[in-house]
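Quick start: read one record
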Amino acid sequence: MISELGAERRQEAEAARRQLEQLRSEQQQLQQQQAATTAQQQRQQQQQRQLQIQQGLMQMQQSLMQFNQSTQGYQRNNSNTYPTPTSTTTSQPATRTTCTNCNGKGYTDGTVPTFGLGNPEWCDKCKKDMPAGHYHKSCTVCNGKGYW
């Protein structure tokens, strides 16, 4: 009977060992599948990044082509700062609006306080006698142009 118990225990131990080996094998297969899945996900992410980069490059290329098309007919001037038209355009000339601050003169006049000292003087710009301390300065609204 003891030998029968020992044989049963050996069989149970053998069965448990086989079951353990099978579980280890299944665990190893799962780990391999997970590694393959992770590698596949990484490849997909890389492909998505490459696609985004390609799309960005295509957009930049299209913008550059549009820019080049819009600047056809222009050449650089001698100072290499701003393009100048190579041919005359048929568009209407820009309209100028007279500056309301200086009334188109490009300057404003003012007077420094003299506290009653000094005599009036003739001003060639104003074409009349002006009080002492009278002066002119460039219009700060139109920067001295007299228009916008």
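Residues 99-148 form one domain.
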